[in-house]
Amino acid sequence: MHGSVATRVLRDLAAWATVLLFMFPLFWWVLSSFKPYTAIFNTTPIFFDFTPTLDNYRVTLAGASRVGLAVERGGGVGTVAGGASSYFSIPSIVDSIIVAVGSTVLAVILATLAAYGLSRWEMRGKQHFVFWVLAQRMMPPIAVAIPIFFIFRDLGLRDTHLGLVLAHTLINLPLAVLLMKSFLDDVPRELDEAAMIDGASRLAVFRMVTLPLVRGGLAATAVLCFVFSWTEFLLSLQLTTSIRTIPVKISTFVTSTGTEWGFITALGSAALVPSFIFIMLVQRHLVRGLTLGSLKD
Amino acid sequence: MATALAQRQAGGGVFRLPRWLAGDHPFPWLAPLTAMLLAFGVYPLLYAVWLSFQERSRVTRQFEFAGVRQWATALADDRMWGALQTTVVYTLACLAIQLVLGMAVALLLDADRRGYGLLRALMTLPLVVPPAVTGMMFLLMQDAQFGVLTYGLVQAGLLDPTQPLLGASSTALAAIMLADVWQWTPFMVLIFLAGLRALPKEPFEAAAIDGASPVQAFRYLTLPMLSRVIAVAVLIRSIDLFRIYDYVYVMTGGGPGTLTETLSFYAGRIFTLANFPYAATLSLIVLLVLNAAAMLFIRLTRIRF
Amino acid sequence: MSFREHDRKTFIADSARAYAQRRIGKREFLRRMGLAGVGFSAFAAGFLGGQRPGGGLRISKQALAQDSGPDPEMMKWLAEVGRPFAGTTIRYTSEATPPTIVLSQLVKDEFTAATGINVEIEIVPLEQVLQKATLDVQGQLGTYDLYYLDQSWIATFSPDMEDPRAYYDAKPDLAMPGFDWDDFSPPLVDGIAKFEGRLVGIPFDIPIAILMYRKDLYEKHGLKVPTTMDEYMANVKAIQAAESASGIYGTTGQMRSGHYSLECEWTIWLWGNGGSIFNASDMFSGGDEEGIRGLEYMMELSKNCPPGALTWTWDGQGQSVTQGIAGQLVSWGEFFPGFDGTDSKVVGLMEAAIPPTPTRVRPSSEAGFGEIPHIGHQGGSTLSLSKYSSNQEAAWLFMQWATSKDVVARGCVLGGGASPVRLSAFADPRTKEAARVGPGTTRHFPAIEYTINNMMGSEPDFPAWAEMANNLIPVELGKYLNGQTKTAEECMAAIEGPANEMAAPFRRT
After folding, report:
1. Distance (Å, rounded) from C-alpha C7 to C-alpha C2?
2. Closest Cα to residue C376, out of C330, C422, C318?
3. Best of A77, A154, A252 to disrupt the C interface by mutation (most C CBs within 10 Å)?
C-alpha cells in the first residue's frame, strides 16, 4: 500500500487496462445502438465512420413508429412493417424494475433472517439443511419452469408481477442464504450476546448491532439478487404473457425475416442504466471501515 | 414484533406462544425461508422424479408408467455421455479461469485511491447484461463475416478466416466460454472484493512491519481469511456453470454436431420437443451429479456451514 | 388504395397515442399531422404524387380518391356479430413473422375497435411457440385461444385444433360472408394446413424457396438465369471464382448445425436432386442414390458460401445477401423485400426467379407421410384455433378477420410481401402497385406464385416429424458439414436408424 510512485502508476495502468478490456464488448454494443443498420454489418468493422442515429432509441424508448421514421427518411408510408406497439419497450423496463426490486427485497429479507438463525444457533442437521437450500439451485431452470407453471396457474399467479417476484426469489434464495451466512459468520456471536446481556431483545440486537456490521455483505448479496432477477429469461418467458421483462422482450426482436439488431442493441444498452444505478446506490456500502476490522482480533 | 402481534391477537397474553417460538430459538428465523422453499421448491422436484418413471406415447401423448426405462435409455445414450463430458470440461475450465482471473482483478481493484470506486462499479457491469443478450453480443462479435472479434483475430494472424469461430470444432466451445468468462469473472470479483474489503487491517500492518512480502501476505493472510468466501463463490459458480444453457442456445445451438451440447441444453432441447419424461431424467442427472460433486467438494474442503 | 389510407390512419393513430401519452410534444404532433395530410393536402401533393428516385411508392391521386380504409362491409359485419363478445380477451401466440407483425399493428384500431374483443398477441421465438403450444395441449389448459403453427408441427397438433372449414359450416351465424375458401392457394392448403384429410388451421404465412440472384454480377460475368441444377452450380462456382477477391461468395446458406433451418436447406437440395426423405413404404430414404447426390450437392454449395454460413440460420443468410456478399441463392422469398429495403446494400440489384428445375422430381406417391418432393420448399404456417379455448367464438372471429381477403392483401404490402396465402392477393391492385424497386416491394410475387403452383415442395406430416426436423436431422447434417462425419453415406446412415424407429408407430403398413 505504500509502494513507490512507479508501482502505483503501474497498478493504475493495469487496473484501467483490465477494466477497459472488459468494457470493450459493452462499448461495441452501445456503439452499435447508434449505428444505422448497414453500419452494424460491414465486413470491415466500422468504429467511428458512420452518421450516428437515435432511431433505434426512438423506436424502443420513445415509441416512434417505423412508419414515422420512414416518412422522415423519405420512404413511403405503408412500406415498412412494425408499428409502435411491438417495439416500444418502456413497459418492459418498468416490469423488469418491479420484478427485480421486489424479488431482491424479498430474497434478501428471507435469506438474512435464515442466515442469522443458521449462524447464531447450533442445531442438529444444520449442515444438511444448508445443503438442501443450496440444492434448490441445482435443477436446470427448464425443469423447474414447467411445474412452477402448473402451480402458478392453479394459484392464479401466472402472468402477475407477484408470481414472477416469487419465482425469482426462489432461484435467488440459495445464493443469498449462503452469502449472508458467510458474512454473518464473520461477526462474532459474543457481540450479540454481550448486547443481549445489556437487556436488548434478540430482534433489536439483530437490527441495531448485527445488520449494520454486515452492510457490505448485504449490499453484495442485493446486487447479485438484483442481477439474477434482472437477467433471468426462461422462467419469465414461461410464466408470463402480458408482462414482458427485458430479456423476454429482446428475444421478440428476433423475427423470421431478420434480427432487429438495431433495436436489440438499443434496448440492451438502455437496460444497463437502471441496473447500473441500482449497483451504484448499493455499492456505496461496500466500503472498508465500519466492518470487522475493529471487532476481530 | 411478530411475537407481540401474535400475543395481542390471541387476547392479551392469556395464550402464550410456545417457548420455541417466543424464546431464543432459531425456528422463527428459519421458518419463512423454509415455508417458501417447501411451497415452491419441493413440488418441481417431485414432479421431475415422477416424470422420469413415465413414458410419453408419441401417438396418444399420454404418460404411462415405464419403470426405469428412461434411466436405462439415458445411461446407454452416447449423446448424454458426450453432453456430460462437455459440461464437465466447460465447468472446470471456466471455473479455473474465472477463479484465478477474478481473484487477480479483485486484488488489483482493492485500493482506496481515486477512481477505483468507479472501476469497481464498471467491473460489475457485465453482470447486468442478460445472458441471452450476452450470447447475442458475442454472436455478433464472433460472426465469421461481420464480427469485430473475428476481424481482429484474422488481422492479427491468429485465425484462419475460413474457419468460423462458432462453427469450427476446434474453437466453438472456447468461443462460448469466452462469453461466460466475460460475464462471470465480475461475479467472482464482486464477491472477492466484498470479502477483501471486510478484512481487518491490523494483521496486514503487522505483517508489513515484520517485513513480509505482498506475496507472503496474500498466501498466509488473505487466502486463509478469504477461504470461506472463496468456497461459497466456487460452489455457486460451479452450480451455475454446470447448468449452462443460454449461451449455447443463442450462440451455437449445441453445434457443430453435438460438440458444444451441454447436459442442460440437451435436456432443454428434449423438453421443447415434448419428450418430458426423458428431459426430466436428464435434468435429474444434472441434479444428481451436482449433488455428488457439491458434497465431495464440501467434504474435501471441510466447509462447515 | 385502401392500404395506404389505412396506414395513414395507423400513423395518425400512433402519433395521437404518442401525443396523448406525452411521448411527443404538441409541435411534433402537429408536424406529423402535417406529414399525414391532416387538414391540408401537402401530404398528398408532396408525398403521394412524388417521383422520388430510388424508392418510395408512387400512388396516383385517382387511387387515393378511391381509398376507403379497411373493407367497410367487413367492418360492419364484425361490429354486428362481435357485439356479444365485447370485453372478452383472446390470446394468440406467434413467432415474430410478417403477418403477425401486421396483425399486431392493425388489431387495435380495426378488429378491437369494431368488435370490442381485446386481443393479446404474444410474440416469442419460434422454438418457444412450439414449447408453449406443447405444454398447453399436454395439459389441455387453453392458455391460448389461437396458435401460429409451423407446417412441420401440423400433424403433432392436429388433435388439438378445430378444423376451421368444419367450424365455419357449423356456425353459420359467425361465418364471415364472402370469406371464400377457394381463394386460398390449393397447394398451400394441402401442404401447410391439411393432415389426414382435415384442416388443422388456415394458411397464414408462406415463406417459400425461390431463386434470387445479383443481376449486376450476372451481367458482369455473362451468366444467365440457371434453369437446371448443373447450371445453378456452375453459376455459383463462376461467381465464387470471379468475385472472391472482392469478398463476394458464390452463394450463401442457412446451415447452422442442429437448427431447423439446416433441415430446410437440406431438403431443397435433396428434392432438387430427385430424392425424398421417406419412401413409399414410409422408410427413411435420404441414403439412396438421389439422397446421397443431394447431400453432396449441398456440401459442394457450402464450400462456396461465406464461412459464417455454417453458423447462420435464415437470419444470417438473409443478412449476408443484404450486405452484398453473396451472388445467388435458393431460399425464402420473404427475404426479398428486405433486399430492396432501407437497410440494404443491394437495393435494386437483386432479381427473383423460379428455382432451377430439378434433375428429376420424385412423385409424391413414391414418398412417404404425405411428403411432396420438389425444390420450392415451403415453410408456411397456419393460424389455428385451439379446442381447449374458452373464448372459441371470439377467437374464431379474429381468425377470420386475420385471414380475410382484405387483411391478407394489405398485409402483403404492409408486411413486406411475405404472406400471399390467397390467390386474390397476387391479383390485388394494391400488391401489383407495389411491384417496383423499393421497401415493401412485391416484384418477386410472380416467382412466388409460379413456385407455389408448380414447384412446391412440402415436408412429411406425422406427429414425430417435428422432433426429427428440429433435432436428429440437423444435428447429423451439422456433423457432416463440419467434417465430424466423413462421408455422405455415413451421415445418412446415422439418421436412418433413429428416423425409422421414430416413424414406426405412424407407418401405414
Report:
1. 8
2. C330
3. A77
Whether residues C149 and C217 share a domain: the answer is no
Q: Which residues of chain C make contact with A77, given a CB cutoff of 8 A?
A: 4, 7-8, 11, 36, 47
pLDDT tens digit sequence for B41-63: 899 999 999 999 999 888 888 89
- Residue B160, domain CATH: 1.10.3720.10
Query: CA nearest B273 in C: which residue?
Result: C467
CATH number at A90-294: 1.10.3720.10
Residue C232: domain span: 209-377+453-506
Contacts of C319 in chain B (CB under 8 A): 146
Please give the average per-residue pLDDT across B62-86, as a whole number: 95
Nearest one of B296, B291, B267 to B74, comparing CA atoms:
B267
Q: Are B257 and C308 in contact (CB < 8 Å)?
A: no
* Higher pLDDT pick, B291 / A145: B291
Residue that finishes a domain, picked among C411, C427, C443: C427
Average pLDDT over residues A102-128: 92
Residue-wise pLDDT tens digits, A5-20: 888 899 999 999 999 9
Residues C230 and C348 grouped into a single domain: yes
CA distance C466 to B274: 10
Kind and range of the H or E element at C95?
none
Instruction: Spell out the residues 6+ positions from residue C503 whose beta carbon is closer than 8 angstroms to its own.
Output: C278, C282, C283, C284, C368, C369, C462, C464, C468
Q: Given a cut of 80, is residue B17 above it in pLDDT?
A: no
Same structural domain for residues C322 and C420? no
> Which residues, numbered 55 to 84 in chain A, qualify as contacts with chain B under a Cβ-Cβ cut-off of 8 Å?
none
Pick from B123, B228, B267: CB nearest A142: B267
Written as nine digits, the cell of C242 is 470471379
- C-alpha dist (Å) from residue C414 to A62, A209, B291, C105, C205: 22, 65, 54, 10, 14
**Which residues 232-271 on chain C approach chain B with CB closer than 8 angstroms?**
256-259
Residue that is written with C-alpha cell 432509441 in the block: A57
Q: Which DSSP symbol is given to C319?
A: H
Q: State the total domains in chain B.
A: 1
Q: How far apart are CA B223 and CA B220, in angstroms?
A: 6
User: Is residue C64's pLDDT more than 60?
Assistant: no
- C316 in any annotated domain: yes
CATH of the domain at C491: 3.40.190.10
Q: Considering only residues C180 and C50, tell me which one the structure prediction assigns the higher pLDDT.
A: C180
> Model confidence over A30-55: pLDDT tens digits?
999 999 888 888 888 988 889 898 98
CB C124 within 8 A of CB C95: yes
Question: In chain C, positions 11-40, which contact chain A (CB-CB < 8 Å)?
Answer: 11, 14-15, 17-18, 21, 23-24, 32, 35-36
Q: Kindly indicate whether the ipTM for this predicted assembly is greater than 0.90, answering yes or no.
A: no
Query: Is residue C495 in some structural domain?
Result: yes
pLDDT in tens, C78-115: 999 999 999 999 999 998 888 887 788 788 888 999 99
* pLDDT value for C47: 31
- pLDDT greater than 70 at residue C56: no
Q: How does pLDDT run across A92-101, given as a tens digit for each residue?
A: 999 999 999 9
C134 near B CB under 8 A: yes
